[in-house]
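Need a sequence for this fold. Nothing fancy.
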């Protein structure tokens, strides 16, 4: 499904708006099963992983009948993506069954795979239901915006920490730019798209995928009081898996609750649950993160 073009094609700025995200998710079909995606022009050293996962999912979705909805994806980040080069998404139609459809997507830049993903789609069925309760958290409108939260620490953080983001994020824990040793390693963040989105479930799902990569790596760093801005810190996502239980409206508030149950061997596991504002658990997420300090640096 196409949802139309948005904004100007000139994205020559450091800030990224939700309008930009919608535009880059409208990937171009070059040939049957082959799509091309671009990135907003921003000061990132590599393509944002959530963008690649969302574009790959959009490519898969455009090869699947509309009566089948995404219920899970399993993916690996293989190489850093280059921001100024297009990404080709090659879709393999693995299976079209009676109830389930499976797709494999490989993202390629300069002839090399940077990301691969398996995605499964399912026709609607009735069945048993249960879910975890949403944790008790403050109302999102009562919490400071990201810029308000970081303003007291402007002299300690890089300029890119203050750039415009397409997702409104409101942390539920006390304001601060980094946790101290011994503080809770749980993360509770309210999120929503900063602009109204078209009434298109495909687009809302891909925006959720895009945003789901924003705070999980921080969940692994929190127990050790490690921060992005620390000299010699290297942190990157290794994989990303999601299960979709109920639809989420991405431009309304949803809670991203996450924690990190274990870390070893320079890798940490993060897991997240996404609740809508009514308290329904809609999406489950896991991600393994590579985390190295200056004493651990080596080629990836």
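Here you go.
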């Amino acid at each position: 499904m196409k949802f139309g073009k948005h904004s100007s094609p000139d994205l020559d700025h450091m800030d990224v708006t939700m309008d930009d995200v919608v535009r880059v998710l409208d990937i171009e079909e070059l040939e049957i099963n082959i799509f091309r995606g671009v990135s907003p022009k921003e000061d990132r050293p590599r393509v944002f992983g959530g963008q690649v996962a969302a574009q790959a999912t959009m490519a898969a979705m455009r090869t699947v009948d509309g009566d089948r909805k995404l219920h899970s994806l399993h993916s690996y980040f293989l190489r850093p993506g280059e921001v100024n080069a297009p990404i080709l998404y090659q879709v393999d139609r693995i299976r079209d069954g009676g109830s389930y459809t499976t797709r494999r997507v490989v993202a390629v830049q300069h002839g090399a795979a940077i990301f691969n993903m398996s995605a499964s789609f399912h026709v609607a069925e009735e069945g048993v239901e249960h879910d975890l309760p949403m944790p008790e958290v403050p109302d999102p409108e009562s919490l400071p915006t990201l810029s308000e939260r970081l303003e007291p620490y402007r002299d300690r953080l890089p300029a890119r920490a203050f750039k415009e983001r397409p997702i409104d994020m409101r942390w539920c824990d006390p304001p601060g730019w980094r946790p101290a040793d011994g503080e809770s390693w749980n993360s509770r963040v309210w999120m929503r798209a900063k602009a109204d989105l078209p009434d298109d479930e495909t687009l809302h799902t891909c925006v959720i995928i895009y945003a789901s990569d924003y705070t999980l790596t921080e969940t692994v760093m929190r127990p050790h009081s490690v921060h992005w801005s620390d000299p010699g810190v290297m942190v990157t996502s290794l994989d990303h898996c999601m299960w979709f239980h109920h639809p989420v409206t991405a431009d309304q508030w949803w809670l991203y609750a996450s924690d990190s149950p274990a870390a070893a061997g320079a890798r940490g596991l993060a897991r997240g649950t996404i609740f809508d504002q009514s308290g329904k658990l809609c999406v489950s997420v896991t991600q393994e993160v590579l985390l190295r300090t200056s004493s651990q640096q080596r080629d990836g």
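For context: The longest strand covers residues 112-123.
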